[in-house]
Design a protein that fits this description.
- The protein is elongated and about 55 Å long.
- The longest helix has 25 residues.
- It is an all-alpha fold.
- The protein is built from five helices and no strands.
- It binds zinc ion.
- The site of zinc ion (ZN) has 8 residues, from loops.
- The site of zinc ion has 8 residues, from loops.
Length: about 110
């Protein structure tokens, strides 16, 4: 029996962690915007949501571009986003026991 998830075995679990950090920063920036909702500084209301959106989008696209399969060379995160329901793609990616594209066991990423 194979121990650990495909992401762990391929040494790419940290990428999901970095994705969550990026999403946390994005959420914190949105929270800061709400916190300062009564302030009169209009630029703050422009910069905070722009920064929050930018960080969130970058974290998302970085994750789907950076997770690679050492066997098929594909991008399993992108595959999961395209093929699976939006509510489950990340869960499927995080807990997969083999590559979501080719079903191969984890290989070192080239
Ligand atoms: Zn693969």
């Amino acid at each position: 029996m194979v121990r650990g998830t495909w992401l762990e075995q391929s040494g790419q679990r940290w990428k999901v962690g970095a994705f969550f950090v990026g999403m946390g920063v994005s959420g914190a920036l949105f929270a800061a915007m709400v916190f300062w909702m009564t302030a009169s500084d209009e630029m703050r209301f422009l910069k905070l949501p722009l920064a929050a959106t930018t960080v969130g989008i970058r974290a998302f696209f970085w994750l789907i571009a950076s997770v690679r399969c050492g066997s098929c060379g594909g991008r399993p995160a992108w595959h999961a986003v395209q093929k699976l329901d939006h509510a489950v793609w990340l869960q499927v990616l995080m807990f997969a026991k083999a590559c979501p594209i080719c079903a191969a066991p984890a290989q070192p990423v080239r």
